Amino acid sequence: MTLAGKHILVTAGPTHEPIDPVRVIANRSSGRQGFAIAAAAAEAGAKVTLVSGPVSLETPSGVDRLDVATAEQMAQAVFAALPVDVAVLVAAVADWRVEPSATKLKKGEGPPRLEFVPTRDILLELGSSRHRPPLLVGFAAETERVVEQAVAKRRAKGADWIVANDVSGDVMGGHRNRVHLITAEGVENWPEGTKEEVARQLVLRIAGALA
Ligand code: CTP
Q: How many structural domains is the chain composed of?
């Protein structure tokens, strides 16, 4: 029971940004890594709030789950859950959305011209918020210069740690992961493992940091 008495907030999965009543902009995130972290934190005795995008996964036992669809809904659920001791933002949040059409876009009208607008950056907002959790952990999904970009992301987002993973292979949607933990002290290259193994390792590190 290494996290007894601590409240951990986890975001997981993709977001779905509507284009019209039947179409969305989505991504390949399965939610598995975030759900595994929520499960491991609950096993370690934490109170866990899991804000999940649309996924097809069972809620881990002992976890309070809130389902959302869009980045805006995820942001609202995250800020409503504060204060927490730790936030681990694993979700693959859409960076852009469009103004959705109230009615279905018809093929006969030709290809739609989608105008993208930025979504809220939840990690960035949390990093500079009044209620910034004492330990703020982000993920970085990169396909090139993984560590270098994750080191820059840690500073840019105001996070304490960044868990960096190379998503150029089949990590997104897959069962295994190989990550690098970026902290203020430096870079740790963790061995490849299942998403459950990576989750337990991260929860151990979190418990150590809070102790
Ligand atoms: N994130 C977030 N809100 C967003 C976008 C990202 O909270 N609107 C969080 C993710 O949950 C993750 C971290 O920010 O913890 C980094 O996400 P990533 O997609 O790797 O980076 P981006 O900020 O989207 O930057 P880029 O796509 O340019 O790499």
A: 1
Ligand 1 and 25: CB distance under 6 A: no
1 in a domain, yes or no? Answer: no
Q: Is the CB of 162 under 6 A from ligand 1?
A: no
Cα(102) to ligand 1 centroid in Å equals: 28
Give catalytic status of residue 27 as yes or no.
yes
Q: Which range of residues forms the domain containing residue 39?
A: 7-210
Non-local (6+) Cβ contacts of 163 within 8 A are: 90, 137, 138, 139, 140, 179, 180, 181, 182, 202
**DSSP assigned state of 192:** P
Residue-wise pLDDT for 145-195, tens only, equals 999 999 999 999 999 999 999 888 887 878 999 999 999 999 999 999 999
125 lines ligand 1 (CB under 6 A): no
Is residue 1 over pLDDT 80? no
Does residue 152 lie in a domain region? yes
Residue 12 contacts residue 90 (beta carbons within 8 Å): yes
